[in-house]
Amino acid sequence: LGEYSALVAAGKVSFSDAVRVTRLRGEAMQSAVNPGLGAMAAVLRADANELVELCRMVAEETNQVVEVVNFNSRDQQIISGHDAAVTRACDLLKAKRVITKKLRVSAPFHSSLMSPARKQMEPVLEKLQIVSNDLLVVPNLTAKGIAQYEKAFLIQQIDSPVLWTQTIDHALSDIGIDHLIEIGPGRVLAGLMALYLASDAAAYVTG
Questions:
Q1: Buried/exposed code over 68-91 (b: 16+ C-beta within 10 A; e: otherwise)
Q2: pTM
Q3: What is the pLDDT of residues 54-104, one digit of tens each?
Q4: Looking at CB atoms within 10 Å, which of 2, 5, 158, 196 has the fewest?
Q5: Bridge partners (DSSP) listed for residue 41
Q6: Between helices 15-31 and 115-126, what is the axis angle to 10°?
């Protein structure tokens, strides 16, 4: 959802269009999977590559979906998919003494189970007016800053992982961002950034 806020802030999408489209997007994602069939869980202090492989193995074993869908930090990822497959992955992780926690969510967001929502939103997003300007936006899908933003990014991100860690890597190392401001309730992102950054740079994060 934050990508829509970024597009509005960058002057690429109007506020009214963003409100309209994100409401439709939320409704489509909510209806994509029947209640109780999906689940999400936070995984703490696991190697991201190993977690991706574990989810692949569980998906093959259960013939269900479980995927890493949020790379929040080097020490926190989110998995999403069918409830039974997510539970199985959590059990295997707990046996390895990896901390997991089921999330209170109503659907398995950003997993491939969201493909019905993507199909529903595609014709809506194809009609969305995107203004061309020189400001960079970093899509969740690619984690690479781009000025000529494409509608395909919004379509494909519905059932694709959020590459947050990779986005921050790119913003700091390649774009040269040195100040980060979290706007809105809470300090979740500021907290993630304080862990991400070295202690001498943490002062540049403001929630």
A1: bbbbbbebbbbbbbbbebbbbbbe
A2: 0.89
A3: 999 999 999 999 999 999 988 899 999 999 999 999 999 999 999 999 999
A4: 2
A5: 79, 102
A6: 160
